[in-house]
Specification:
Structural class: alpha+beta
Radius of gyration: 16 Å
Helix content: 25-40%
Shape: globular
Largest sheet: 8 strands, mixed
Distance between the termini: 26 Å
Strand content: 35-45%
Strand order of the largest sheet: 1-2-3-4-5-6-8-7
Length: 180
């Protein structure tokens, strides 16, 4: 299976069916933490939903359109990170992520995003990577700001979330701007 090393204790791994139950319970544990920012949270109702999601993620990786990786710390899944809409013609993609509330504030996500950026530029030959986050999601917005992304604007009412439209901050990072 595909794996990227973030640190001695943290890896990004393509999940398989053996991770379905662990993923499901992590999502359930973090429902209230994730619900304000993740519109898919209430669609995960069973371990079977996790299995279906993992199967879809593997299929998308095989098609080379998306790369969804579990964030594992000491072999336990603590979140997810993804390269979405990999566009090989235009050499761009965007990153999405979420992390278990107990692991927030430790630098894990910043390091995971950095690792995925480096993979995208070095292995996929991307030129541009974007991150979009709700304007009020300050913790998610801090990551691209910390990594040198440029805030390029606000997409007004860019996402429908929990019965309301939410503005999204758009961050971009070009390969020439990234400091390895």
């Amino acid at each position: 299976m595909f794996e990227l090393k973030v640190s001695d204790r943290v890896q990004l791994k393509l999940r398989d069916e053996s991770h379905a139950k662990e993923t499901y319970w992590l999502i359930k544990k973090n429902e209230e933490h994730l619900r304000p920012w993740m519109k898919w949270i209430d669609k995960v109702e069973s371990v079977d939903d996790s299995i279906a999601n993992i199967e879809l993620n593997i299929e998308e990786w095989e098609l080379k359109t998306d790369l969804h990786l579990g964030i594992f710390r000491d072999e336990l899944i603590i979140g997810m990170i993804s390269l979405h809409n990999i566009d090989y013609l235009n050499h761009k993609a965007y990153i999405g992520y979420w992390l278990d509330e107990d692991n927030v504030g430790r630098g894990i996500m910043t390091d995971a995003v950095r690792t995925l950026i480096e993979y995208g530029y070095a292995e996929l030959e991307l030129n541009r990577i974007e991150i979009r986050a709700g304007v009020h999601n300050l913790k998610s917005r801090a990551i691209p700001e910390r990594l040198g992304f440029v805030q390029e604007g606000i997409i007004r009412e860019g996402e429908y979330l929990n019965g309301a439209f939410v503005d999204l901050a758009v961050y971009g990072l070009l390969r020439t701007e990234y400091k390895y």
